[in-house]
Amino acid sequence: MDSVPEPDSSNSENMTSITTINTNISALASSPSTPSRYENQKRRDWNTFGQYLKNHRPPLALSRCSGAHVLEFLRYLDQFGKTKVHTQICPFFGHPNPPAPCPCPLRQAWGSLDALIGRLRAAFEEHGGKPEANPFGARAVRLFLREVRDLQAKARGISYEKKKRKRPQQPPPFPVPTGASSNTTLSSSLHCSSINR
Ligand SMILES: [Zn+2]
């Protein structure tokens, strides 16, 4: 009778690697020189993508990964999205703050995907990948992200336009609403006048 399980199935291999990854992350987090949140997030994203490649059927090696596979990965992530993206037939299409629930799907927000791709693109090259072979920098991925941005901007009534960096002048800060403070002033002046009497 053999009590030691052989790690011959792909499932147990995955389990083992997940445990190792978690251990590494907690070890890093408790070390005095804690890496930045960006670095931590980048490492987690890279591990997630690694898991995705491992679980891919048929199995997919990183070296054979193309922009098309990255798009597949992004679509796979959509099922975990939390951003409501209204379809064109939804009455709330184009409403930033719909007054009622609707059955439209939840997706990954464009901003999350854009940041994710940026981190994975950097991680790929940090792990020895060549910039010209970087699947996260593929034209198809750029076009896809632009499409998602435009679609979500329309569906959610939100503009994602980048702030123009060429202009050194910043718009003046929005004045703080004075409703509450004027009320305070009014009541305190009333208070003062009642004391005076
Ligand atoms: Zn909707």
UniProtKB/TrEMBL annotation:
Superkingdom classification of source: Eukaryota
One Pfam family this sequence matches: ALOG_dom
Locations listed in the record: Nucleus
Keyword Transcription: yes
UniProt domain ALOG: residue ranges: 37-164
UniProt main location, coarse: nucleus
One BP term from GO: response to light stimulus
Region feature Disordered, mapped onto this chain: 156-197
Keywords tagged on the record: Developmental protein, DNA-binding, Nucleus, Transcription, Transcription regulation
GO cellular component terms given for this protein: nucleus
Single annotated GO MF: DNA binding
Compositionally biased spans, kind Polar residues: 179-197
Family membership noted in the UniProt record: Belongs to the plant homeotic and developmental regulators ALOG protein family.
Protein name as catalogued: ALOG domain-containing protein
Protein's organism: Tetracentron sinense (Spur-leaf)
